[in-house]
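Amino acid chain
________________
===
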Amino acid sequence: MKNKHNFQWRYFVLFLSVLCFNFLSFNTYAESSSLAAEKVRPGPVDRQLKIFKYAESTQCNNDGIPLKKMVEELRVAGITFTCAQRAYDGMAYPAVCGGATGEINVFRIYASDLPLARRLGYAPVSTLPEYQDRPCGKAKVFKYDGSTQCNNDGIPVKVMAQELVGGGVDVICGQKASDGMMYPAVCGGGTGAINVYLIHPENLSDAEALGFSSVNELPEYQDTPCQ
């Protein structure tokens, strides 16, 4: 009888051991699954926004802070931007030489860099009530074609394209366009006509070395699809 009780007791202890082992194994699996889920769970998305700083240009003068200079300022500060363009604040200014133009340099940055950008004097474009946003252009560069009013002159698109090709820059397409500015109607005066070329982004610095500039530097330029 005593042996029978011992056998039953041993069986009961074995049953409890198996039950505890299964319970611990399940908890370990659950914790591992939870940790794995934490590892693959994506982090918060860092949204982008546009900031600006006045170019401090004045009417009748070819002055102001170039877009490229502010580009360098942001790079030195470690602020990543995905777009840089010249624009206007949208306000009306009295037409007077030496007066303000309202030109601004605009950059699209990540929201996490906004506090640092503020310390450098930049502010979100949302603080400009009259600002009209425009899309950041693709890797398009331009150069004035040198045409003048009342004359059938100016460098053709295909001819100027050879400057880029000869400099090792692949031209995807080219088109004639306007810089969007107004010019006095006078024979021999400028027309604002430009030759625009779509290139690969990695060739932008090469194109700039050849005297071309990004269309994003033209505040009044209206982009059209390149055929």
